[in-house]
Amino acid sequence: MHDPYLYVGAGLLVGSMVGLTGVGGGSLMTPILMLVFGQSPVTSVGTDLVFAATTKVVATASFGYSRRVDWGVVWRLALGSIPGAAAVICWLWLTHTPKVVDHVITRGLAVMLSITALGLVLQLPFNRRALDFTAASLERAEPYKPILTAIAGFLLGAAIALTSVGAGALGTVALLWLYPRRLPPDRLVATDIAHALPVTIVAGMGHAALGHVNLAMLGYLLIGSIPGVWLASRAAIRLPYAITRTLIAIMLVVAAGRIWPAPCWIRRPSPSRPSGPVDIHSGYRPARSPPATASRSR
Q1: What are the pLDDT digits (tens) for 43-79?
Q2: CA 205 to CA 211: how far, in whole Å?
Q3: Is the pTM of this model over 0.90?
Q4: 182 to each of 70, 84, 105, how far by Cα in Å?
Q5: pLDDT tens across 194-251, in order?
Q6: Is the pLDDT of residue 93 over 60?
Q7: What pLDDT does residue 272 have?
Q8: How many other β-carbons are positioned within 10 Å of the β-carbon of residue 226?
Q9: What average pLDDT does the chain have?
Q10: Helix 241-259 / helix 98-129 crossing angle, nearest 10 deg
């Protein structure tokens, strides 16, 4: 295990990003655990889910979102997201091949990081320019909004349980698309965080039951993150959202590029084989045996 102070520092960094931006910053934890600390994909996701659930509780209490939450929308999302998260946990429980699980999580994480980065960059332009168009197009689909919300929740829940990414940025984009006029900006973020809490708790408990949570590492991360969220949410200085979201999006894209497995044609070449005549049947060059020394006759 690495130096505990490094885990505390990583928790402080991610907690500060969550406190400053509200959404998007928590997506950095799983790539940090994988790329910086060398944790396995499944352990990184499981530990990050429990970490995210605890951090979101503190962030919700700190920001005081309880009076701004649209609980009707949260209920509609949860009808789909909790079964989606449970389905992924069942798949992890039934899959007994760790290599397959790590491969699926790695690919899914790289895709989700890229989509989250795109959602962070396009959220503000979408909010300003496409609000009227989206509201007009959804007026005819008003009777189907509960079903559409549950479907969006199912996809979010499955993605969160598989990769621990998407609860913040993608959830906000989904709510903005489904309820552009019902949820103003403050209620939008509050409702998204309120919905992310039960999903991360269910997914985190499932991963913990499967042994995918490193409790010692989780404790050090929380020691750094809880003060980071509390202090950053009360900081007097606020960077513009466009700058912070763009910086986080760039970091997520870089992390996705590092996590995505390299194609076979650019992977590290295999060690050179010894020289010698090629065997016709196997196609490999057998290793040369040392020259035999002539025995001396006594």
Answers
A1: 999 999 998 888 777 666 655 555 678 889 999 999 9
A2: 10
A3: no
A4: 9, 25, 35
A5: 888 889 999 999 999 999 999 999 999 999 988 887 777 666 456 666 676 777 778 7
A6: yes
A7: 46
A8: 19
A9: 77
A10: 150
Asked whether 223 and 59 are in contact (CB, 8 A), the reply is: no
Residues sharing a CB contact under 8 Å with residue 65, sequence separation 6 or more, in sequence order: 189, 190, 193, 194
Structure tokens at 238: 């606020």
Exposure letters 110-147 (e unless 16+ CB within 10 A, then b): bbbbbbbbbbbbebeebbeeeeeebeeebeeeeeeeee
At 93, list the tokens: 């429980």
> What pLDDT, on the 0 to 100 scale, is given for residue 190?
78
CA-closest candidate to residue 203, choices 157, 161, 154, 155: 161
Whether 124 and 185 have beta carbons less than 8 Å apart is answered as: no
The tokens describing 168, both together, are 């913040």
Q: How many Cβ atoms from other residues are within 10 Å of residue 233's Cβ?
A: 19
Say whether pLDDT at 281 is over 60: no
Q: Which residue has the tokens 């913990």?
A: 208
CA separation for the pair 211, 209 (Å, rounded): 5
* Residue in this structure with the two tokens 């799983």, named with its chain if needed: 30
How many C-beta atoms surround the C-beta of residue 206 within 10 A? Answer: 20
Whether residue 21 contacts residue 233, with contact meaning beta carbons closer than 8 Å, is answered with no
Query: Is residue 287 pLDDT above 60, yes or no?
Result: no
Over residues 171-195, the pLDDT tens digits come to 887 888 888 777 777 778 778 888 8
Contact predicate 190/69, CB 8 Å:
yes
Residue 8 CA to residue 269 CA, distance in Å, equals 38
Contact 121/246 with Cβ under 8 angstroms? yes
CA dist., res. 107 & res. 111, Å (int): 6
Classify residue 1 as exposed, middle or buried by CB count within 10 Å of its CB (0-12, 13-18, 19+).
Answer: exposed
